[in-house]
Design a protein that fits this description.
The complex is a heterodimer of chains A (319) and B (782).
Chain A lengths: L35 H19 L14 E6 L6 E6 L3 E6 L4 E7 L5 E6 L5 E6 L3 E6 L13 E4 L6 E4 L5 E5 L3 E5 L7 E3 L6 E6 L6 E6 L3 E6 L7 E4 L4 E6 L6 E6 L4 E5 L8 E3 L6 E6 L5 E6 L4 E5 L9
Antiparallel strand pairs in A: 1-2, 2-3, 3-4, 5-6, 6-7, 7-8, 9-10, 10-11, 11-12, 13-14, 14-15, 15-16, 17-18, 18-19, 19-20, 21-22, 22-23
Chain B lengths: L1 H18 L4 H21 L6 H25 L13 H4 L16 H10 L5 H12 L10 H21 L2 H9 L3 E3 L11 H4 L8 H12 L11 H9 L2 H30 L3 H25 L1 H20 L8 H10 L3 H17 L9 H11 L7 H9 L5 H21 L9 H35 L1 H12 L4 H37 L4 H4 L1 H12 L2 H10 L1 H4 L7 H15 L5 H6 L12 H7 L6 H8 L5 H16 L4 E2 L17 H7 E2 L23 H4 L13 H9 L9 H7 L4 E3 L11 H9 L7 H8 L1
Parallel strand pairs in B: 1-4
Antiparallel strand pairs in B: 2-3
Helix pairs in contact in B: 1-2, 5-6, 13-14, 15-16, 18-19, 19-20, 22-24
Classes of the chains: A mainly beta (319), B mainly alpha (782).
């Protein structure tokens, strides 16, 4: 009697490591798959639904401030460090991975208005309602040492915001005028005014590092060049912009968050009309920041929402 | 005390000299002299007790005297109040007791120039400039206001900044189009790093090692194992492999081309055929002349040079005995010429060649000279051709003959261009041509008229036979089909115009109807009634006039035939039926053939050709087709298509007997025929002149694109991309991976720095290697 055996080469169906995907022999001839469109549609739909179901955008809350948090700052060289300044003048340094407060310091009397970490990541600057600019070390003082700022500059007026140059020891503050400071000096090396307004935010361009943008209370956004004695250009909008942020990957685009519930992306070369209008918020937009890839940005609004917008999309992304 | 008083005077003058600055040059020598005198006197006079005392006393006296003088002067007539001036002592008196000369004066350019002319070191140019400056009395414009200047500053600065920023454009575009971006951008290349980069601190320690290293470094050999020698590195840097390959290929190609060319020329040189060379030479000459002509236009200087060369060649030719029939060959031919025709011809040719070569070259450049010569030369004028042609043109009945008139000058001009180069026997023609140029304007006008006339007559020629035929045939066979056919378009035209007027009426009426009522269903209820109204209202006298204007031809001529009555009753019926007119019936009714004599229409149209307006043109253009009825048919067809079909699900043989000739029972058919519910009324139901497609689905259109996305060229491409499946089940693993590549890849835990300026440098290198397939990238984005 002859017995016929089915024999297979295990190389054809056994994967080499368990990290490999299971080999499934398939015939990809499209004529054998008449319902591919509908099947794929169903799959895509299910995938989207599940993604929504399992989306967990909220990771953790960092508790500890005794008053409202007024400003945040990312650490430039350490991804797990975050700084927050509150309305009672307290600054806290957080470790994001452990989700705990590393250090607390009383930086100012009154609000901490602005905060920025120096490009080297060893120190950070704060401005407060007490008309001072203070520079602090990131590291906590050793045991027995007193918590003291490295440097304090007394200003004439209240500062409302600040930003640091990406490469040099230069930073900019805004208040009644936009000042550019050298770290080594106690008086500004440049101060820009254009009419009498107060400014709410100032930002350095991270790519073309000599350029600045600021939001003024007369509903305008003003551009500056650090090297020039006068401001460059001004756009006046229908309502006031709260903050402005440059795209870190595309040198001439910046976005501003406006009181009219929208965000506007501008090309700084052609300011006569915005490139994109980002709509979805239902109240004034307070702040925004770009993702480091420059593809998206996040905005926070008075309507208690945070939205993520693609840089060239008119509406926010669903999470 | 005469001496004393003198002294006083002198002192006074001294004081004056210090205070009064003007005319100082004149005063000073006196003073010096006085002083000298004074001293001399004081020495001489021993009686005077002491100088100082006296001086003091003198000073007091002086002051008193001054006061007195002032008081006196104040008494007399005018009161001159001196303005108290305060001046700085330091300025007035320099510390070296040298008075600042010309203090308080303005410095004029003239002062400077005065000294300048004396000094020879100053270049003449500056002197001139300064002189010019002196003469110009231009005032400098007043500076701009602060705001203005600031604005200008801002503008300049902004422009500068924006140009600076624009450098990033390429990179930004490239990144936007990239299929995949990997962040952080400046990632260090993976893989093993070279040893020498890792171990930088290593040093030779033992004496042996040191010796070896010393040797190596002395011979410029690599110290660490894998690196190249400096020479090798230099060579590597000098040229990359690819570049070298490209260059080599280029060189090879050039060499090959050169060798081909050489071979070709060698081959050509070896050709012995005289004829070949003759032809070749001739062609070359022609080409050269052509080039030369161009050169005359573009580069006259070079052309002149060429001209001189040609002249030289001509001289040489004239001086030499070439082509003069004086050579050995020529002599032999002379002997042969008596008997041989060929030899004679050859000699003739030779002479011609000579003539040709020794001809003077005439170009635009030396035309003026030539013209002078010509004036002398002109005796016999060759009349232009068209003069002869004019006689032929008198045969106005023949259009072809007239055609020549227009062609003549054109030819002439061509020949003129040809003749321009060589001044041969045809040189005499030139003045005639000039005359002709003057005449050409008149000619062109003439020609235009002529051509018009011709066209018209051609028309007549075509149309003329038609009426003849008609008139001949009409009495014979009034109702023949062949005859009717050419007339059909006219009738259709008429009907078309009727339809158009009807349409207008409908449109007006519906507008009027909807405006007061504003309800859509009104037109559902009784459209016909409204239509009637509209028709009655619109088809007034004016409308009729319009119609008659459009169709003057059939109405006017109408020779008494049987056809006329058939027209009028037709018109009458339409007019009568206007009351109970059914819109669709009217519009879609079969076109009835009406015979209208065609005879004189053409004449009329010719006369009114100028008046032919837009409408008439359109009517003519679309005379053949019945647009309106076509449209309505089309609409009806679409309506039919949109109606839901009855689905017949009857299967023969189920529950019954089956067979070839058996039909399923009626009962069964009724049961299995599924009638779907009637669709909602069409939106264009009461709009007779509109077709509204119902195919568009609003719910789907939300997911459809309005315009073709960027990289796609046509919609088929786009649809095929969209239709292709993405999943693993239908694609191979690699394809899936390729299709579903993420647009952005970030590395976990890496800090993504903002774009740095180094990227600009990198980009310049990579510009050439920027070929990406956009279709794939688009899909991924999706």
């Amino acid at each position: 009697m002859k017995v016929k055996l089915l024999s297979r080469n295990p190389d054809d169906y056994v994967r080499e490591t368990k990290l490999d995907i299971q080999r499934v022999p398939r015939n990809y001839d499209p004529s054998l798959h008449p319902f591919e469109v509908s099947r794929e549609y169903t799959r895509a739909l299910n995938a989207t639904k599940l993604e929504r179901v399992f989306a967990k955008p909220f990771l953790a809350s960092l508790d500890g401030h005794r008053d409202g948090v007024n400003c945040l700052a990312k650490h430039t060289t350490n991804l797990s460090t975050l700084l927050s300044g509150s309305c009672d003048g307290e600054v806290k340094v957080w470790n994001l991975t452990k989700r705990e407060c590393v250090r607390t310091l009383q930086a100012h009397e009154g609000f901490v208005r602005g905060m920025v970490v120096r490009h080297c990541g060893t120190s950070f600057f704060t401005v407060g309602d007490d008309k001072t600019i203070k520079q602090w070390k990131i590291e906590a003082p050793a045991y027995g040492e007193e918590e003291e700022p490295l440097n304090t500059i007394l200003g004439k007026t209240v500062f409302t915001g600040l930003d640091h140059h990406r490469k040099e020891g230069v930073f900019a503050t805004c208040g009644q005028q936009v000042d550019v400071w050298d770290e080594q000096r106690s008086s500004p090396i440049r101060s820009f005014t254009w009419g009498v307004d107060s400014f709410s935010a100032v930002r350095f361009n991270p790519v073309e590092t000599e350029l600045l943008a600021s939001c003024a209370s007369d509903r305008s956004i003003v551009l500056y060049d650090m090297r020039e004695p006068a401001p460059l250009k001004k756009v006046i909008m229908t309502m006031r912009s709260n903050t402005v942020c440059w795209n870190p990957m595309e040198a001439y685009y910046f976005t501003c968050s406006n009181e009219d519930y929208n965000l506007y992306t501008y090309d700084m070369r052609h300011l006569d009309k915005p490139i994109t209008v980002h709509m979805d918020h239902v109240s004034a937009v307070l702040d925004l920041d770009y993702s480091p890839t420059g593809k998206e940005f996040v905005s926070a609004s008075f309507d208690k929402t945070i939205r993520i917008f693609p840089k060239d999309g008119g509406h926010s992304r669903l999470v | 005390m005469a001496k004393v008083s003198k002294k006083k005077v002198s002192r006074k003058s001294v004081r004056r000299s210090t205070t009064v600055t003007e005319k100082l040059a004149e005063v000073k020598p006196d003073v010096v002299y006085d002083d000298g005198d004074d001293e001399f006197l004081s020495k001489e006079d021993g009686n005077i007790s002491s100088e100082e005392e006296e001086e003091d006393g003198g000073g007091k006296d002086e002051r008193k005297r001054q006061k007195l003088l002032e008081a006196i002067s104040a008494l007399g007539g005018k009161r001159q109040k001196k303005l108290g001036e305060r001046s700085e002592a330091a300025v007035l008196m320099s510390e070296f007791t040298v008075n600042a000369e010309g203090e308080g004066d303005k410095i004029d350019i003239s002062d400077l120039i005065g000294s300048m002319e004396k000094t020879s070191a100053v270049p003449a140019k500056t002197k001139k400039q300064l002189k010019n400056l002196q003469h110009t009395n231009k005032t400098i414009e007043c500076p701009l206001s602060k705001q203005e200047s600031e604005r200008i500053q801002r503008d300049v600065a902004f422009r500068k900044a924006s140009t600076e920023v624009t450098r990033w454009k390429d990179i930004i575009k490239q990144n936007q189009r990239a299929e995949q971006l990997v962040f952080p951008l400046d990632k260090e290349p993976a893989g093993p790093r070279p040893m020498e980069r890792m171990v930088t601190g290593w040093k030779a320690q033992t004496p042996l090692e040191q010796e070896i290293f010393a040797l190596l470094s002395a011979n410029k050999q690599p110290i660490n194992d894998p690196i190249l020698t400096p020479a090798e590195e230099a060579s590597m840097r000098a040229m990359s492999l690819e570049e070298a390959k490209i260059r080599r290929a280029e060189l090879q190609k050039a060499r090959a081309l050169q060798s081909y060319y050489e071979a070709k020329t060698r081959r050509e040189r070896k050709i012995k055929s005289k004829k070949y060379h003759k032809v070749q030479n001739k062609a070359k000459r022609k080409e050269f002349l052509k080039k030369f002509e161009e050169m005359v236009k573009t580069d006259p200087a070079a052309a002149l040079e060429e001209l001189s060369k040609i002249e030289l060649a001509r001289m040489q030719e004239r001086m030499s005995l070439k082509h003069q029939n004086s050579g050995k060959w020529a002599k032999s031919k002379v002997i042969m010429a008596k008997y041989d025709e060929g030899a004679r011809k050859a000699m003739q040719q030779q002479l011609e060649v000579n003539k040709e070569l020794t001809q003077k070259l005439v170009t635009v450049l030396n035309k003026e000279e030539e013209e002078e010569e010509e004036e002398e030369a002109v005796d016999e004028e060759v009349l232009p051709d068209f003069v002869n042609d004019a006689e032929q043109g008198l045969h106005s009945s023949n259009p072809w003959m007239r055609g020549k008139l227009s062609e003549g000058p054109a030819e002439k001009e061509l020949s003129e261009n040809m003749d321009l180069i060589t001044e041969g026997p045809g040189a005499v023609e030139n003045p005639a041509e000039e005359d002709e140029e003057e005449e050409t304007e008149e000619e062109t006008l003439l020609r235009e008229f002529d051509s018009r006339r011709k066209r018209r007559q051609a028309h007549e020629a075509v149309t003329a036979p038609v009426p003849d035929q008609e008139e001949e045939e009409e009495p014979q066979v009034p109702g023949q089909g062949e005859e009717e056919e050419p007339q059909v378009p006219d009738q259709e035209e008429e009907e078309l115009s009727e339809f158009t007027s009807l349409f207008r009426g409908i449109a007006d009426s519906s507008r009027e109807a909807e405006m007061p009522e504003g309800a859509a269903d009104s037109c559902h209820t009784n459209p016909s009634a409204q239509l009637e109204e509209g028709l009655v209202r619109v088809r007034t006298l004016e409308e009729m006039e319009l119609l008659s204007q459009q169709e003057p031809a059939p109405a006017e001529p109408a020779p008494a035939t049987e056809q006329l009555p058939s027209v009028t009753p037709q018109a009458g019926t339409t007019r009568k039926r206007k009351r109970g007119i059914e819109l669709k019936e009217v519009l879609t009714k079969e076109t009835k053939v009406i015979k209208v004599p065609l005879a004189p229409t053409m004449e009329d149209t010719e006369d009114s050709e100028d008046k032919l307006d837009q409408r008439g043109l359109i009517k003519e253009a679309f005379a053949g087709d019945d647009v309106v009825s076509d449209f309505l048919k089309d609409k009806r067809k679409q309506e039919e298509a949109a109606k839901p079909q009855v689905v017949d699900l009857t299967l023969p043989g189920w529950g019954e007997w089956g067979g070839t000739n058996l039909k399923p029972s009626r009962n069964k058919r009724r049961r299995f025929r599924i009638k779907t519910a009637p669709p909602p009324p069409r939106r264009d139901q009461c709009l007779p002149s509109i077709i509204m497609s119902e195919k568009r689905n609003g719910s789907i259109s939300l997911h459809q694109v309005n315009s073709l996305p960027f990289p796609f060229q046509n919609h088929a491409q786009f649809e095929s991309t969209i239709r292709a499946p993405l999943g693993r089940t239908w694609n191979t693993e690699q394809t899936v991976r390729k299709i579903n590549k993420p647009k952005v890849v970030t590395q976990l835990g890496a800090i993504i720095e903002p774009m740095s300026r180094e990227e600009l440098m990198k980009d310049k290198k990579q510009v050439s290697t920027g070929s990406t397939s956009h279709v794939d990238s688009w899909k991924r984005k999706r």
